[in-house]
Write a structure and sequence with these properties.
The chain is mainly α. It is 78% helix and 0% strand.
Length: 419
Amino acid sequence: MSALILVVFLSAAVAAVPIAHALLMAAMAAAASSDRVPLDLLVQQMVAQVQSFPLIAIPFFMLTGTLMMGGRLGEALVSVLSTLIGRFHGGPGQVGVLSSTLFGGVSGSAVADASAIGSLLIPWQKKLGYPPAFSAATLAAAATIDIMIPPSIPMILFALTANASIAALFVAGILPGLLMCAGFMAVCWWVGKRRNFPRETAPIDYAVFRKHLVYASPAVLLPVLIVIFLRFGIATPTEVAVLSTLYAGLCSALVYRDLGLKRLNAAVVEAGLATGVVLLVIMASAAIGWLLTYDQMPQGITQWVQSNVHAASLVILLMNLLMLFVGMFIDLPAAILLLTPVFLPLAQSIGMDPTQLGIMMVVNLAIGLYTPPVGTTLFITSAVAKVKVGQTVRELGPFYLVAFGVLALVSYVPLSILR
């Protein structure tokens, strides 16, 4: 059964069938080929997976990001950062990295980050004379910081599948996200200095800077409030998601005064469509995961690894290599939902905490978002910058080095230190 699932899924994916539909085709084909799996039971498993209270957090976090970054706030945030660091070597690139990091505390979606921040910054960087391919590479990589800084939709999906703590994952993701941010900013500085990239030359107008800083402070405050509420148990992740949406709505309506009925309707529709896509992937992945578990594939992989690989460091290396490979071809939500049931028993067999496995998986699959052939943020930023994907990939080398360094720390440094 497992082999049939793999063949049907890969065939559909190669034929450019959407991932969720390819997963459903593979699940139905496997169930139809076996007289041991009733189709109605498979449908029950699919529906049961989305009947989960923590999933309510996903549409609310998406709506929060849409409300906060769809109006004047994004421009104010970019103005503050460009004034602050735009005159350093590689400063415009560093603005993009910091913007993505701060946006990560609002949205939780790398794709939303790449689209929103890219449309704001890439035209500005091109106007300064920045190489468009490097701008696209910087933002393609930096957008993935969004899913490490809480809130993070992929972490919610992992917690749902692994029965792990969402709050623990959110807190554990802060340090890797900040390390990635610092590393990417260092890359921008080094490349900007070595290649003499243009920088902002206008003198700082401190009155304007203070005005923009105050104006953008609600966006900077939101991720801090999210971490405080979760870390000290003031509210559950789902309650935090609802409160963050209320906060974003009040800020947009009362502080920025750019929330009309038309924009509210567009934000709700956008968040609803994005949530629908995620839920379809969850249902399809749940069907595949249940069939693979029924076929005892995760147990078989665990037994094989335990019999042939005895060093925990090698087991971690094998998991990383497979995650990196899968992340190059499968969308991040689907990859998390498919790989978690396979790797969770394997991680537990070597004494790895599920929270550390979740962070390791998110970092791995985040790298896949800007790695060809199916790098989502890679294609988005390349399209915004109007450059070929190959040109963007050639600029990504130093960013990959930083990402692999952070991945090594997340994989091999004990979780107690990461916390």
